[in-house]
Amino acid sequence: MQSMNNEVDRYNLQPKKFIMWLFMISSIIFFAGLTSGFIVYSGDGAGKSLNVPLPKAFIYSTVIIIISSFTLHWSYLQTKRLKFEGQKLGLWITLVLGLVFIGMQIYGWAVWTDLGIFFINSNASISFVYVFTLTHILHIIAGLIIILTALASSYKKLPNVTNLFRMEIASIFWHFVDILWIYLYVFLLLSQ
Amino acid sequence: MSTIAIHNPAASHHDDHSHAHHKETFLTKYVFSQDHKMIAKQFLITGIIMGVIAMGISILFRIQLAYPDESFPLLEVLLGKFAPEGRLDSNFYLSLVTIHGTIMVFFVLTAGLSGTFSNLLIPLQLGARDMASPFMNMLSYWFFFTASVIMLSTFFIETQPAGAGWTIYPPLSALPQAMPGSGLGMTMWLISMVLFVASSLMGGINYVSTVLNMRTKGMDLWKMPLTIWAFFLTAIVGILSFPVLVAAVVLLIFDRSFGTSFYLSDIVIQGQVLPNEGGSPVLWQHLFWFLGHPEVYIVLMPALGITSEVIATNSRKPIFGYHAMVYSLIGITVLSFIVWGHHMFVTGMNPFLGGVFMITTLIIAVPSAVKTFNYLATLWRGNIRFTPAMLFAIGLVSFFISGGLTGIFLGNAALDINLHDTYFVVAHFHLVMGSAAIFGMLSGIYHWFPKMFGRMMNAKLGYLHFWLTFISAYLVFFPMHFMGLDGVPRRYYAFTEFESMAEWLSVNKFITWAAILGAVAQAAFLYNFFYSIFFGKKATQNPWESTTLEWTTPVEHLHGNWPGEIPTVYRWPYDYSKPGHETDFIMQTTPHSQTMSSNLAHDFEGNEEAERIQSKWDTEHNNINNTEEVK
Lengths: 192, 631
Description:
Chain B: This is Cytochrome c oxidase subunit I. The structure holds two protein chains of two kinds. Chain A is mostly helical.
C-alpha cells in the first residue's frame, strides 16, 4: 500500500516539475522580447545606443549570484544525503546572498542616478537597463519565495520525497534566474 | 488473482476521492472548484456572457454607422453622457470598437474557447484524472474572471473605456491627455490584460504539461484525437507569444505613468512640446504583432481541432489525412511566429523585409489549404449526419475558405498598401478569424454539451440558430469587401459624411440590419443552452456514437472522471465505418483481439506475432480481403 502511494506521488510530481520548466520558457520569451526590443531600439541610430559604462556593482552582484547557485546546489546535495542541518544552512546562505544581490542591484541604480543617468531618459537604451534589472529582480523575489517554501519544508516533518521535490524546484528556478542574469549582463556588456 | 491486482489501485484511488467528497461544499464545488470539468463550464459561461456583451456593443456602433444623423433617445437613457441627444459620442464610438475587439479576441475566442474545451477535453480524451496542477487551473479561471470584471468596469468610470483600438498603438495609448479613451480606461485596460495574460499562461502551461505527462496507457502522441493536437499546439503558441505582450505592455506602462520614452518622440499636444524624445512607436508594433499574429492562430486552431473531430464523427468516416492534419497544424504553429511584419507593411518597412514577410505569410496558405481539402475529403461520400454541431463545423470550413482567400490579397505587400486599414481587412478577419472561430466554438458546444451537462440541446433550435447566424454573418461581412476596395477606412465614426463615400450609407443600413438579425438569432442559442442545462433531454453515454475516451466516462460527473481504472487505448481515434466490423465505429478502448474481422495489416504497426495470429484467423474464417492485405 505504501509503495503504491509513493507510486501515485511520483506520478503526480513529474507533471508539476514540468510546469516549472514551461514557466521558465515563458520567462525566457519575456526577456527575449525585452532584449530584442533593445536591439531594435538601439540599432536605430547614433545617440540611441548604450553610451555609458555599467555600474561596477553589477560585477559584484554577478559574483554573488553565482556563489549563491553553488550554495543552493550544496544544500540540495545535503538533502539527498539526508543531512538536513546542511540543507537548512545552505538554504539560509542562499537566501541571504539573494537579498544581498537585490541590494547590489539597487546600489547600482543609486550609483547611476548619482551620476545623472536616470531611468527617465531621452535615450531609452538606459531606461531599458533599468527595466531589465527591475524585471529580473522580480524573478529573484519569486525565487526567494520558492526558497522560503523549501526552507519551511525543511523545518517541518514532511516525507523526504516532498522535501526533496521542493528542493529540486527551488534549485531549477534559482539556477535559471542566475543564468538569466548572466545572459542579461553579458548582453549589456556586448551592446555597450 | 490478476483481477484483484488490477482493481486494487483503482479502488484505493476511489477511496481517496470519496474521502475528499465529504469536505466538498458549495464553495469548493461550484465556485473555487479545482475539477477541470467545472472549470471548463465556468470558462464557457463567462465566455458566453462576455460574447453577448461584445455583440451588443457591436450593434450599438452599427446603429451609429447606419444612422449617423438620427437621434435615438433610448441611447441617451442607457448611456447618459456617452450618447448626448441620443447620438453616440464620437470618442465613445472609438471605445466601443476597442472593447468589442478586445473582448471578442481575448475574452471570448481565447479564454472562452481554449479555456472551455482544453479544460474539458484534454483530461477526458487523454485518460487523465485531472490537470497537471488543478490548483493553478483554478487560479487561471479566477485571474480571467478578475480581468473580465476590470475590463467591463471601465464602462462605469467618469471618463470612458480604452479607445485606441484593440491594438492600442502608442502614442495614442501612451498619452493620457491624448483623448478621453486614453485616460483611466486605458490604464485599466492594461491592468486587465496583464491579468488576462497571467491567466492564459497558467492555463497554457497546464495544458502542455498534462498532454505530455498524463496520457493513459497506450495513448501515444499519434493516437491523440486532433482536438488534443490543436489544443496542445495552441497552448505552445500562447506560451511562446503572450510573454512578449507583457514585455511590450510593461514598457507602455512606464511610458504612460513614469515618463520614459520607449515609444514616444517629438510630440506636440495643443502647442505644448512633450519632453519625451528618441522613442519609436514602431517598436510597439513589432512587439505587439509578435504576439498579435500568433494570437490569431490561438483563436483559430482550437476551432480547427474541434471541427476535425466533429466532421469525422458525423461523416462516419476516418478523418482524411490524420498525419497531414497534424503536420499542417505544426506548420501553422511555426509559421505564425515569422509573419508578424505583414501587419506593418505601411510603417516604412524596408521593401526587402516586406518581401520576406510576404513570402512567409503566403506560405501559410499551404497548411491551411491542406486542412481545408482534408475536411472536404472527409465529407466526400460520407454517411453524413447533419447534427447542429456538424452544421456549424461545415460553416467553419466555409468561412475558413472565403475569409482565407482574402488573406492572400492582404498578404501581398503591394496590395496591402491600398487595402491597409480599410473595411477589406475588417471583412477578412471577421470571416476567417471571427466567424470561423465562433462557429468552431458553437460546434464544440453543441457536440460536447451532453458531456458537460448530461443533457441534450434541442436540435431544431440548433438548426434555426445555425441558418440565421450563417446567413447573417455572410450578409454582414461580404459587402464590407467592396467598401474596402473603394477605400472606406475602418474605425471611422461617420465616414459617410465624406462626399466620396456617402453612397455607402445604404450598404451600412443593410449591414446593420443583417447584424441585428444575427444578434436576434443568438436568442435561439441562449434559450436553448440555458434551458437544456436544466430541462434538456437526458443524454446517453455516447450520444454521437463517437470513438474517443470521453464517451467512456459515466454521464454523471465524478471527481477523477472514471469510477474504476482509467481505460487503456489500443487504436487511433478515427475508426469509423471500418470494413468488416459490425458497427460503424470502434472505440479507442477496444483491443484488436476483439475486432478480428476488421483488422488491417497496418493496424499492427509491424508486430509480426500479431500479424501471424491475424492471418491464421483469416484463413480459418475465410476472410479473403484481409488475408491479402496482411501478406
